[in-house]
């Protein structure tokens, strides 16, 4: 019998690669920047798009699982951690670097 946690970890890697494709694609276009809690707390349409994309794919595969997403919480959703399997999602780790295209790791290939 397959280990369900390993299966989730493997799926997380698949999702990260798909998210990377979206992020790399966004770097070729103009980046739309908004602020959250302060002028230096940035969020982009790509953060939101990637988070929604990841959550939708996880919901298809694991409909009973829960989510805490950085951008959803910033938009007012609760961040309640329970005993239910929960995915913690940070769609772009380093939005400021993404906005300024500082981090060359965004350009890594699969
Ligand atoms: Mg982030």
Provide an overview of this structure:
This protein is an alpha+beta fold. It has a single domain, classed as Fructose-1,6-Bisphosphatase, Chain A, domain 1 (2-Layer Sandwich). The protein contains four helices and four strands. Helix 1 (4-26) packs antiparallel against helix 2. The longest helix is centred in the N-terminal third of the chain and has 23 residues, at 4-26. It starts with a helix and ends in a 10-residue tail after the last helix. 18% of the residues are buried.
Task: Sum up the structure in keywords.
110 residues, alpha+beta, Fructose-1,6-Bisphosphatase, Chain A, domain 1, two-stranded antiparallel sheet, 4 helices, 4 strands, 13% strand, globular, binds magnesium ion, Inositol_monoP_metal-BS, magnesium, metal-binding
Compile the SSE list and pairings.
Layout (H helix, E strand, L loop, with lengths): L3 H23 L6 E3 L6 E3 H17 L4 E4 H5 L11 E4 L5 H6 L10
Parallel strand pairs: 3-4
Antiparallel strand pairs: 1-2
Helix pairs in contact: 1-2
This protein binds magnesium ion (MG).
The site of magnesium ion has 5 residues, from loops.
Radius of gyration, in angstroms, nearest whole number: 15 Å
Q: Can you summarize the main beta sheet?
A: 2 strands, antiparallel
- Overall structural domain count: 1
The CATH architecture name reads 2-Layer Sandwich
Low-confidence stretches: none
Q: Tell me, rounded to a whole number, the average pLDDT.
A: 91
> Helix fraction?
40-55%
N-to-C series of helices and strands:
HEEHEHEH
Enumerate the distinct ligands.
Answer: magnesium ion
Number of helices: 4
Distance between the termini: 29 Å
How much of the sequence is in beta strands?
5-15%
Structural class: alpha+beta
Number of strand elements: 4
CATH fold description? Fructose-1,6-Bisphosphatase, Chain A, domain 1
Binding site for Mg(2+) 1: 70, 92
GO molecular function, one term: metal ion binding
Binding site for Mg(2+) 2: 90, 93
InterPro entries: Inositol_monoP_metal-BS, Inositol_monophosphatase-like
């Amino acid at each position: 019998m397959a280990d369900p946690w390993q299966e989730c970890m493997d799926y997380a890697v698949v999702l990260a690669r798909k998210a990377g494709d979206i992020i790399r694609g966004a770097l070729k276009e103009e980046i739309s920047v908004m602020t959250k809690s302060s002028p230096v707390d940035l969020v982009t349409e790509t953060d939101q798009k990637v988070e929604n994309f990841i959550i939708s794919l996880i919901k298809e595969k694991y409909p009973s699982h829960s989510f805490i997403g950085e951008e959803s919480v910033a938009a007012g959703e609760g961040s309640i951690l329970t005993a239910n399997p929960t995915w913690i999602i940070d769609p772009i780790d380093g939005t400021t670097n993404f906005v300024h295209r500082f981090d060359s790791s965004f350009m890594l290939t699969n």
